[in-house]
């Protein structure tokens, strides 16, 4: 007879960790326009002290939550078949950290890496020019057009911009963006 080992979820430990980590927002699940509106109110209520940082965090949240809403490859199979993503906002000593992730098809990961690398490497003035270039060209209907104006705007708003892609299967990868806003 095999011995089954199970680890029980400890809610109180999780709650303590959230409090210690100063997590403003922790969400994983279906993303809807109504949910984005509700979460945005919560974010504004939590980050009231620093108006400039609050506006930046809110702006980044809106851009990246909408990216999940429109482009995530993971779809909730119940209800309205909404797209699924993960959003964290963490209050650290000197900055806020916004972390957003969602599933993407492996067929677009190399293009996403290339676009995010370009966004990360450009200076502010070059980023603005790149944003104008994207705005002046019509949107493509293919999935690789995901890293568009929204990501450029988020990078312009943030103080740092990092990306990571983790292959999950032969078909899908998890695409994560890490952005910080100085207090």
Helices and strands, in order, run as: HEHHEEHHHEE
Number of domains: 1
CATH homology superfamily: Histidine kinase-like ATPase, C-terminal domain
Order of strands, main sheet, comes to 1-2-3-5-4
Tell me the strand percentage band: 25-35%
What is the CATH topology descriptor?
Answer: Heat Shock Protein 90
Overall shape: it is: globular
Poorly predicted tracts of residues: none
Question: How far is the N terminus from the C terminus?
Answer: 57 Å
Total beta strands: 5
Main beta-sheet annotation: 5 strands, antiparallel
Radius of gyration, in Å, reads 18 Å
Instruction: Calculate the mean pLDDT score and round it.
Output: 88
Number of helices: 6
Protein architecture, described:
The protein is an alpha+beta fold and 183 residues long. It has 6 helices and 5 strands. Strands 1-2-3-5-4 form a 5-stranded antiparallel β-sheet. Helix 2 runs antiparallel to helix 3, helix 3 packs antiparallel against helix 6 and helix 5 runs antiparallel to helix 6. The model has no long low-confidence stretch (mean pLDDT 88). InterPro entries: DUF6272 (IPR046239).
């Amino acid at each position: 007879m095999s011995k089954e080992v199970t680890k029980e979820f400890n809610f109180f430990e999780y709650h303590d960790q959230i409090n210690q980590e100063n997590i403003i927002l922790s969400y994983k699940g279906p993303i809807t326009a109504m949910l984005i509106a509700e979460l945005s109110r919560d974010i504004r209520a939590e980050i009231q002290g620093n108006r400039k940082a609050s506006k930046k965090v809110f702006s980044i949240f809106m851009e990246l939550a909408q990216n999940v809403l429109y482009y995530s490859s993971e779809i909730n199979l119940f209800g309205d078949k909404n797209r699924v993503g993960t959003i964290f906002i963490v209050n650290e000593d000197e900055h806020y950290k916004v972390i957003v992730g969602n599933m993407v098809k492996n067929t677009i990961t190399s293009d996403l890496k290339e676009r995010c690398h370009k966004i990360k490497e450009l200076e502010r003035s070059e980023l603005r020019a790149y944003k104008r270039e994207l705005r002046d060209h019509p949107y493509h209907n293919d999935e690789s057009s995901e890293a568009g104006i929204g990501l450029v705007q988020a990078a312009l708003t943030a103080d740092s911009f990092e990306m990571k892609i983790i292959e999950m299967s032969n078909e899908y990868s998890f695409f994560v963006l890490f952005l910080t806003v100085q207090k």
